[in-house]
Specification:
This protein has 986 residues and is mainly β. It contains 8 helices and 64 strands. It comes from Adineta steineri.
């Protein structure tokens, strides 16, 4: 049986994963072994000499590895190189930790200093590994006895910094040490491209071990749960944008040299097998490890995930307040990476709708052309439910005039625009699905159209293409009729009149067609999708309106839309196809002769319905945009330029987006996107910038690196303003609220270096909000008194602990004066400062907490009339509760374990039992935990909820005015805000 190496001899693989897997931070990490290549290449004994004082009996195990190594090691390695790998595989005698255990421990913790003594060994070890041939791309397995599904959301990128052991043998799952058949279990299915097989150089000669190099960068493809408590996560290795592992010598290959596979003519392409592998694996795993018994459902959880709303990049702090009126709560979010503040204004439907125009009922298709020859792009939609076409005349700034409708046939479903009568005016053609016809509307050149002319088609026409298919220099029409499975051509006469349809080919439930020259013979060919057979068929044009049947290519479930372009810049046309039943897209790269390479898959949102290819971010590389009908989003995939794409970014649309076009609507030379939303009768226009910054309504510029955010009435106009710390330019920024949720005026104040947190409170009873600021690298906080005219007095500084990170204000000694509490990350403590009444504070009183306290919440946890404190300890994965015994004297901290890297905490009564509860955001495990309090201030029970990637801030408030406390969570890596609605009965 193959073995999966554990981190230390008495640990489980669950702990091994924690020690060998590290998800990259919001900003890319630097390799913890950066600089190892500067070391000389030494014999093993000398390379390991710096470790003799660190690892138990190091010289013995070094000699053991050399003694076991043959004089002529395989793979062309030297004795020392082969022995370096063998030494890595040796288990030290218990209870001592092995070389690989300690090495991976420091790699996982990104501890560069601790790794320095290992550098000489690492130089020899990595030199040996890269001399081994890369295994062919294949799927390897790794199992842990814990539910890690929340930490690996689809589309997330991550880097494993440790050297990771995997297996190709699924029988390893039978061993309880690795997966077992009880409790929470996670199986990783990893598509790797540069793993190394080390069996020939291992201490364990029967071990089929695949070793992944440090810095292996992966994208989460999908998840599956084939049995209760069993989770399968499919990862795919990709080459990172920045170097994650330096080559040990010149000419060394960390990754294999990429060669395109030869095309084998006249055979079916089966790209979807790799996608089905995860499902098949789930079935096998369920058989191997057994299906666990279902866990009974207990209705004791107060929250359900309400919705996800897009913010700027890396939201770092949030405030919930009344920005527009006294009734509705809005949310302000500071976005760390793009220096903005995003407002989420609550309404009954959604937040952050982009510019919209009204269409007919249930628009299903959209085109964009200049219908009135004014140099500005207009939009036309086909409206399935009221049998009309809507014309929206463009103003030129991304906005549109009032709609004008034209009647067509029954259930119009697919729309195209072209000059069918050669008068240099754009005309329209649309399929009418329910009366088996195509309507042609000739344009007048002023954005008005003549009455439709209908032409008979096959049964249920659903897609159209146009071009000169019979070489007479006139535009023809290709019609796909789904119910009778025909592809037919209506030859054009050149005057806007078309001949009767001629059947070209038949498919099984064909649903989409595109025309282009796929074999470079200057004749327009066709490819069409068959929805029920899950394939793509190619028709090659003979030049006279007849077509030869080409090859067939299998897709995933329910191919729904095709887009054509030269995606990899090789001069040959490629195509992308959405698979609405499998939530992915396939990319087929063309060979230039009418044949295509194997499809490559990318995960999408739910039920992808339409795809376009365009240079959205203006970098001269083609990108993809995909509408996801099932979750009302658009996924954007940034092109690398070689036919591959980075993972998607997702932006909110209206309900049921079904079709879209990409053009420059606001004349800024950047491609924009228009999308029709079938269920709410709108068109959304997303104005393009960079991929990461498709622009939102209500976004405001801040200083550099906004880190902390509070709301307060800073100018006494009874409107909540915003105050934020800007770390990199050492300023405070204030945005003045106009009263309608907009902030047209801003003011900036220079303060001390590296401000990390700010608190607004009236400290001196003058009815003005004063400010308290903490600084990252000082042992002090500053108090700034508000003069009432948007100016502040000279800062008064107070000593606290090292690296103050969070400030909170409350009346801790019941004298009706606001006091202060400060988290000190540098010495794991909090400082309490009592207010003398005029804003002057006494000396600090320190209380010990857990390691690296970073956030606090307050409440009367034990109902004794005193304000207590709860603190998150990010360095210890705990929270500390400090009970106020009266007069601001706190008891010793009581600790409660939470998930990985807790980052934020909030307090309220979430379950309506009259006791204060706590909620903690855990950025390292993509979760929030609600700890339910009792009347004594004890938090014995809990509920856990999964979030998106890297939740770093949690707030509580009544989001929907139903009298129950909801939660709002920012997710720093998935760039969105998630609302958890309280569903408890009052």
């Amino acid at each position: 049986m193959a073995e999966i190496r554990t981190t230390e001899e008495n640990t489980t693989v669950d702990q091994d994963m924690k020690a060998t897997t590290a998800i990259t931070d919001t900003e890319p990490q630097i390799s913890p072994i950066l600089g190892y290549t500067d070391e000389p290449l030494l014999p093993l004994s000398k390379a390991c000499s710096p470790l003799n004082e660190i690892l138990h009996n190091m010289s013995f195990y070094t000699q053991l590895a050399l003694d076991e190594t043959p004089e002529q090691p395989p793979d062309g390695l030297t004795i020392d190189e082969s022995a370096a790998i063998r030494l890595y595989t040796i288990e030290w005698d218990k209870p001592h930790r092995s070389l690989y255990s300690m090495l991976n421990y420091h790699l996982k913790n990104n501890d560069h200093e601790a790794l320095l003594p290992y550098f000489k060994y690492i130089k020899l070890f990595v030199t040996a590994l890269v001399k081994l041939p890369c295994i062919p791309p294949l799927t390897v397995w790794r199992g842990v006895t814990k539910n890690l599904s929340g930490e690996f959301p689809p589309g997330a990128e991550m880097t494993w910094w440790a050297f990771s052991s995997c297996t190709t043998e699924m029988t390893v799952l039978e061993n309880n040490m690795y997966l077992g058949n009880e409790g929470d279990r996670t199986l990783f299915s990893v598509e790797v491209m540069n793993g190394r097989t080390i069996k020939a150089h291992s201490h364990f000669v029967t071990e089929d071990e695949i070793l992944l190099l440090s810095g292996t960068h992966m994208v989460v493809q999908s998840q599956l749960s084939p049995a209760d408590n069993l989770y399968i996560i499919h990862l795919k290795q990709v080459i990172p944008k920045t170097t994650s592992l330096e080559p040990p010598f010149e000419g060394a290959h960390i990754y294999p040299e990429i060669k395109r596979p030869f095309y084998r003519k006249k055979r079916f392409i089966i790209p979807f097998f790799s996608l089905l592998a995860l499902f098949i694996a789930g079935v096998i795993v369920a058989i191997v490890v057994g299906l666990s018994k279902s866990t009974p459902y207990v209705c004791s959880n107060p929250f359900q995930q309400q919705g996800s709303f897009v913010t700027g990049r890396n939201p770092s702090a949030t405030v919930l307040d009344h920005f527009r009126n006294a009734i509705d709560f809005d949310i302000a979010v500071a976005n760390l990476a793009d220096s903005t503040v995003t407002m989420l204004l609550r309404n009954k439907d959604d937040v952050f709708q982009t510019t919209s125009g009204i269409t007919g009922v249930q628009p299903e298709s959209i085109v964009s052309e200049d219908f009135n020859n004014d140099g500005k792009l207009d939009i036309a939609t086909a409206n399935n439910d009221d049998n009309t076409i809507t014309i929206l005349v463009g103003i030129g700034n991304g906005l549109f005039q009032a709609p004008v409708n034209y009647t067509v046939g029954s259930s119009p479903s697919y729309l195209i625009a072209a000059d069918f009568n050669n008068d240099k005016k754009m005309d329209l053609a649309v399929t009418n699905q329910d009366n088996n016809s195509v309507s042609v509307l000739l344009g007048n050149g002023n954005a008005t159209f003549q009455t439709q002319i209908q032409y008979a088609t096959g049964n249920s026409p659903v897609s159209l293409a146009t071009g000169d298919f019979n070489n007479d220099n006139q535009l023809d029409l290709i019609v796909v009729s789904q119910n009778d499975g025909t592809i037919s051509m209506l030859a054009g006469n050149g005057n806007g009149v078309f001949q009767a349809g001629k059947i070209l080919a038949s498919g099984t439930s064909p649903n989409f067609v595109v025309a282009a020259d796929f074999n470079n013979d200057t004749k327009l060919d066709l490819i069409f999708s068959n929805q029920l057979e899950n394939n793509i068929e190619v028709l090659l044009n003979n030049g006279d309106g007849s077509f030869d049947i080409g090859d067939t290519y299998l897709t995933a479930d329910s191919p729904s839309c095709i887009a054509v372009a030269d995606i990899n810049n090789d001069g040959n046309l490629d195509f992308a196809v959405t698979n609405s039943g499998f939530n992915n897209i396939f990319i087929f790269l063309g060979n230039g002769n009418g044949t295509f390479m194997n499809g490559v898959s990318y995960d999408t949102g739910n039920a992808p319905s339409f795809v376009i290819v365009a240079d959205i971010d203006k970098d001269n590389k083609l990108d993809l945009a995909v509408t996801n009908n099932g979750d009302n989003t658009i996924s954007i995939y940034r092109g690398i330029g070689n036919g591959t794409f980075y993972p998607s970014s997702t932006f909110k649309t209206g309900n049921s987006p079904s079709c879209m076009v990409s053009r420059d609507f606001n004349n800024d030379s950047i491609a924009d996107i228009a999308v029709v939303n079938s269920d709410d009768n709108t068109v959304d226009v997303l104005l393009g910038g960079t991929i990461e910054a498709i622009r939102y309504v209500l976004t405001y510029t801040t200083g550099q690196f906004p880190y902390s955010l509070v709301s307060a009435d800073m100018n006494n106009d009874n409107k909540q303003d915003l105050v934020m710390t800007n770390v990199r330019d050492n300023t405070l920024g204030i945005l003045i609220n106009k009263g309608d949720g907009t902030f047209p005026t801003s003011t900036t104040y220079t303060i001390g270096q590296n401000p990390t947190d700010v608190m607004a409170v009236d400290l001196n009873s003058d009815n003005r909000s004063d400010l308290v600021v903490a600084y990252a690298y000082n042992r002090s906080i500053s108090v700034l008194f508000n003069n009432g005219n948007m100016t502040f007095g000279t800062a008064m500084n107070y000593t606290v602990g090292p690296s103050p990170s969070f400030i909170l204000s409350a009346d801790f000694n019941n004298d009706k004066k606001p006091d202060l509490a400060v988290c000190n990350q540098g010495n794991s403590s909090i400082s309490v400062l009592l207010n003398n009444g005029n804003g002057i504070f006494g000396a600090k009183i320190d209380y010990a907490t857990g390691r690296s306290p970073g956030s606090m919440a307050i409440g009367d946890f034990n109902k004794d009339g005193n304000i207590d404190l709860a603190v998150v300890n990010s360095g210890q994965n705990t929270i500390s509760v400090l009970i106020n015994k009266g007069k601001a004297v706190f008891s010793s901290a009581v600790s409660y374990n939470v998930d990985k890297v807790p980052s934020s905490i909030s307090a309220a009564d979430f379950n309506h039992d009259g006791n204060i509860d706590l909620v903690v955001a855990n950025s390292g495990s993509n979760s929030i935990i609600v700890l339910f309090g009792d009347k004594n201030g004890v938090f014995a029970s809990r509920a856990t909820y999964k979030t998106n990637s890297y939740p770093d801030n949690v707030l509580s408030g009544d989001w929907n005015n139903d009298g129950k406390v909801d939660l709002v969570v920012t997710n720093g890596k998935s760039n969105n805000v998630v609302v958890f609605q309280n569903i408890c009965k009052k």
